[in-house]
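With this grant's support, we have settled on a layout for protein records. A representative record follows, to show the layout.
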Amino acid sequence: MPFAYLCDFDGTISPQDIGAALVRRFSEARAAEREALLARWFQGGLGHRELTVGECGLLRVRQEEALEFTRTFRLDPHFAPFVREALGRGDAVMVVSEGFDFYVRDHLARAGFPELPWAANAAHFDGDRVTAGFPFADPACDSCGNCKAQHVRRYRGRRFHAVLVGDGLSDRCGARAADTVLARGDLLDWCRGEELAHVPFEHFGDVAEWARGRDLAAPLPRPSRAGRAGHRP
């Protein structure tokens, strides 16, 4: 059975959260409103789709300025070798993001992967105003803008073993649906708190090493369920 790696972008493929940095940089005059939105999201009173709409309403930035800013960030240097190795082995790799399309598309093209499949939320620019679009919204999920579980289910339906690789709370739906979860950051804490089987990782070098070491002739070993740890809701 081939494997499909569904990889989060912000905080995972890009070690820094580019979308969050973009919002912070270009909504400085409305920092209190931004922090209030984030607090509601962390507390579970706001879905990621609503968070994205609210944050876009705070932004004041033109498209060319936004693109220039997002190009100051770099991807995990282990990501490109991992992708080449996985594709060469016959596995699939897809980028699944709750960030914005313009910088996901741009970074993948600049990294040499313009044809790699990806899904992200849309940022529509009109002068210095930005509105959000959700071309990958899942009718089965009323919280996410681009629910990662739908992409996991699609690959599982094509008889792939689906691996969710992520770092954040926006990866929770995908993690629940995946065959295997590779986690770090807030997602790692959440998996521990929920007692959801997972494999910790630090960077895509670890993901590549795990992929090389898997035993395709036997069921994947599941890590022991960790005890509850402090985590965000």
